[in-house]
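PROTEIN SPECIFICATION:
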Amino acid sequence: MARVNGQGDIAREYRKKYGMEMPTLKLARIMYNENKLVFKDVENARTRLRYIEGKKGATEKAKLKNTDFVLTEDRPKNPYALPKSDAKEYAPYIVTGFKRALIINDVHLPYHDIEAITTTFNYAKKEKPDLIVLNGDIIDCFLLSRFMKDPKARKFSYELDQLKKFVEVVEKTFKCKVIYKLGNHEVRYSHFLYEKAKEIADVEEFDIKSVIGARAKGVDIIDDKTIIKLSGLDLLHGHEFVTGFFNPVNVARGLYLRAKVSAMQGHSHKTSEHTETDLHGNIKTTWSVGCLCGLKADYAPYNSWNHGFALIDMDGTNFSVRNKRIFKGEVL
């Protein structure tokens, strides 16, 4: 292969070689596998292809001097006229333009721990995050659970009132962008509708995103299956994998074995970290983050949970993580 100057030259060369019909992601994989010293990962290669194809927005498209690779019409998605598919795809939610994110998991309103949340906010305020990610299970949806429950427990409407107040406190305290990714406890609401009121389950106003959005105006509500990408770090709630890994010996290692990328999760109510180095010396690290709910739930009064939160510093390409434990009101 002739020597090229950089990523853009490589992208144009490969697009010319393989033609405009090849899907961008497939071509990105080929580019990355054959040029691993040039591209950080497949997503980096795909981003460069999307740029030369004019898919990075109207502003970037207008800057292109070479428009030979800009598609005038979409590639055929079904060239063989196969039957319509109902398969779903979950595009990642890509975070850009932020420098520091505070990650909060598993508050489980109204079973939150006031001391742990107060400790988190006191510490995080000094760090001045410009993004807050509420990473699932912020409400408990206790009475909507399929499990046996105490009929004297707080009503779902009370949880929603608590959520509204909690989001208001978060916004007032940090005065920055807030993202809310749904967790498995929020999904309890959807499952309740499917089982008890399937006739209205497809009404937009009854969708869990709408219900939460009405109490958290201005907050981006992210589907529970969607991965949030933070400058190379994949953020999950932790329930997304089919078999789950709620309580392995090392939650972060369980996440690595399934994700194989640098990633972070909540869900387990534990703080842990795991690092692997591949044959080429590339390092991948995974983290699990502690919870901000009470540590003595009726269904698991004896456990190995801990309180915690995480801060992520980002520069658009790289990231660094501070995964903090809380013990007796102190950040460790």
Summary: DSSP finds nine helices and 13 strands in the chain. Residues 156-174 form the longest helix (19 residues). The chain has a mean pLDDT of 90.
